[in-house]
């Protein structure tokens, strides 16, 4: 075996080359959490009718999901630091499998709370997976291609998102009239039996997910992965460790970092809210279609999201990041106003088009926010930015509450206007700041 064919880990944790099978298997995890997140959009619509929920109550699906992400991100990072990326991934897969399995007793108990517990368990698993996989993807190869590897891995996520919507469309949603129309013609006893039957349909995609997850778990178990951990330099007195207290004090006094945290919080909340209620909006504005037909709008939304990433990447080679995201935000605000105030079918297509503008937001806000932090504080700062994903638990509930208060799902989209407006202001502020410094 020649020296070039050997897998070598450098002191900084990176490798001399990328182990292809291990990298592809790791990238498949990105599709798995994309599928889980998009299935929530199906569940919100299904549970709304089956449990006769308010829009606020139905949005608690996302609150349970992103709340789990928020709570587990720091513990997951501790596990990774003390053990290995592979072990954290396997723990995540176990929680993911357990959460999917909880759908079976939840469907038998027929209680909304039990379904929320199952979704929360899935989120804990995904928190481990995402915390480990994003960094691990960058480490599996030469340092100079780290960003490229992460971008390649991230292309699996919208594929998983579209797959999750298709599973929900064909396995959860059924042919015929919408659930609300069918139940309007039934007696109370018939409605009870019908609800139990509809809950059984929610099991179908999770049966498939369990099979896939078990197969992935076995592959990870038998596949040898490099540790990709940075080698610690012993007795280095010139680089004292920064304490958590010192880091938090620094970050709390960093105004630009705090503005970025708010922008990321609102972005994630807006994305989840728009996707959570797109199917509901289609059903409201097109009462002649059923849930299965309405799900097509979400499939198109994920395609738009995917395309939006590529358009933004191209534009960022021609213009500054701040200008591109400011333009995206302005167009986004206009589209959201159109969705909220134009009472015809074109509002649905405007809601779908918003996904084009969501594509570059997460990664760009993350990177730009981290730029404002001194290097010695970036590890903790990065974890805090990831924790801002809690916005996905908050903003859908706010939109659901507004919908219940005003009696209009369409008007409730106005909540997202304020999110996009702040993001636009954030990049305008950064653009002015950089121009001043220049």
TrEMBL record:
Localization annotation: Cell inner membrane
Keywords from the named record: Cell membrane, Membrane, Transmembrane, Transmembrane helix
Residues passing through the membrane, by range: 20-39, 59-80, 87-104, 110-129, 150-173, 205-222, 265-283, 295-312, 324-341, 347-369, 381-402, 408-429
Protein name: L-fucose:H+ symporter permease
PROSITE patterns referenced in this protein's UniProt entry, alphabetically: PROKAR_LIPOPROTEIN (PS51257)
Membrane topology term: Multi-pass membrane protein
């Amino acid at each position: 075996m020649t020296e070039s064919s050997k897998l070598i880990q450098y002191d900084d944790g990176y490798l001399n080359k990328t182990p292809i099978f291990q990298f592809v298997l790791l990238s498949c995890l990105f599709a798995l959490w994309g599928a889980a997140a998009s299935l929530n959009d199906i569940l919100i619509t299904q549970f709304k009718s089956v449990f006769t929920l308010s829009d606020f109550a139905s949005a608690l699906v996302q609150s349970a999901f992103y709340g789990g992400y928020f709570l587990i991100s720091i513990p997951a990072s501790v596990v990774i630091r003390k053990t290995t990326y592979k072990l954290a991934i396997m723990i995540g897969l176990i929680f993911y499998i357990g959460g999917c399995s909880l759908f079976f007793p939840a469907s038998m108990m027929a209680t909304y709370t039990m379904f929320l517990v199952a979704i929360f368990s899935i989120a804990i698993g995904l928190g481990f997976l995402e915390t480990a996989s994003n960094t691990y993807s960058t480490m599996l190869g030469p340092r100079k291609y780290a960003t490229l590897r992460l971008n390649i891995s991230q292309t699996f996520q919208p594929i998983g998102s579209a797959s999750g919507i298709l599973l929900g469309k064909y396995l959860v949603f059924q042919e015929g009239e919408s659930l609300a129309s069918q139940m309007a013609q039934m007696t109370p006893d018939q409605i009870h039996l019908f609800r139990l039957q509809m809950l059984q349909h929610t099991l179908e995609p999770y049966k498939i997910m369990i099979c896939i997850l078990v197969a992935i778990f076995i592959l990870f178990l038998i596949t040898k992965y490099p540790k990709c951990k940075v080698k610690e330099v012993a007795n280095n007195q010139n680089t004292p460790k920064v304490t958590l207290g010192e880091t938090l004090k620094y970050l709390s006094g960093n105004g630009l970092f705090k503005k970025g945290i708010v922008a990321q919080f609102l972005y994630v909340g807006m994305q989840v809210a728009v996707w959570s209620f797109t199917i509901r909006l289609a059903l409201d504005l097109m009462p002649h279609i059923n849930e299965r037909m309405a799900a097509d709008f979400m499939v198109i939304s994920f395609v738009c999201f995917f395309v939006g990433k590529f358009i933004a990447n191209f534009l960022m080679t021609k213009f500054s990041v701040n200008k591109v995201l400011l333009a995206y935000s302005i167009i986004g605000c206009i589209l959201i106003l159109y969705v909220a105030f134009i009472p015809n079918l074109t509002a649905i297509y405007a809601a779908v088009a918003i996904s084009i503008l969501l594509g570059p937001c997460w990664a760009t806000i993350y990177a730009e926010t981290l730029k404002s932090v001194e290097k010695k504080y970036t590890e903790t700062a990065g974890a805090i930015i990831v924790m801002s994903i809690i916005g996905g638990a908050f903003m859908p509930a706010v939109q659901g509450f507004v919908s219940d208060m005003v009696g209009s799902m369409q008007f409730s989209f106005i909540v997202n206007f304020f999110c996009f407006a702040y993001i636009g202001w954030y990049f305008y502020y950064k653009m002015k700041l950089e121009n001043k410094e220049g």
